[in-house]
Each structure stands twice: as C-alpha cells, then as structure tokens.
Amino acid sequence: MATERRKGERVVFERGFAAQMMGIDGTWRRNCLVEDVSETGAKLAVEGSVTGLALKEFFLLLSSTGLAYRRCELSWVNGGQIGVTFLKPETRKKQPRKSQSQMIEV
Questions:
Q1: Residue 103, phi then psi, degrees to nearest 5
Q2: Which of 7, 67, 97, 102 sits at a 20 to 30 Å CA gap from 61?
Q3: Is the pTM of this model over 0.90?
C-alpha cells in the first residue's frame, strides 16, 4: 500500500487535463496529461520518453498560449508517470522608490 506524501488536498482528473512540459531554456517540449493536482504539486502522464531531458526544473504549460504555467521540479519518475513539485516565485526585497525630489538633479 502506497503512502500518500502530499500535504494538501488534490483534484483528480478522470481523463487527464492536456498540458505541455517545456524546458526552462525552451529547448524541449513534451505533451502530457495532468492526472491529479494539489496546491504543492501534480502527477503527470508524459507522452514519449523523458530520458535525456533536463527535468530538474521546467515549466508546466497549462494553456495553449503559455500564459498559464507553473514552474516545477521533478520529484519522482515511475515509467511514463512523473511527480512534480511546484516552485514558488522568489520573494525579492523591493527597493524603495525614489521620490520626485531625489530624481531631480540640482
């Protein structure tokens, strides 16, 4: 019996949700089906081989235009299925904005 390691609730897609995986540098793409998804990750069924692909970090494109996507890292591989963890955007410290008086040179 497999132990569930996910912390959050997950949504299971009975027929899968069509998506694409794309390398961070854009050099490769693979069609895939999102089989289930949670707040922290997803299980994907990948079309074709993943051998030789840079899967440490990649994008999961959720729309045909690429406007909806998640940055992922590989968690596990089991044949044609892979588990991914969603990476959160880096939180950068915002630089204080210069006031108008600081922008005007005297």
A1: -80, -25
A2: 7
A3: no
Q: What is the dihedral of CA 9, 14, 20, 22, to 10 degrees?
A: 40
Please give the structure tokens belonging to residue 60: 């999961």
Q: Which domains does the chain have, with CATH numbers?
A: 10-86 (2.40.10.220)
pLDDT in tens, 10-48: 888 888 999 999 999 989 999 999 999 999 999 999 988
Question: Computed from CA positions of residues 60, 61, 66, 70, in that sequence, does the dihedral angle turn out positive or negative?
Answer: negative
| Residue 48, both tokens | 């074709």
User: Over the stretch 45-66, which tens digit does the pLDDT of each residue have?
Assistant: 998 887 788 888 999 999 888 7
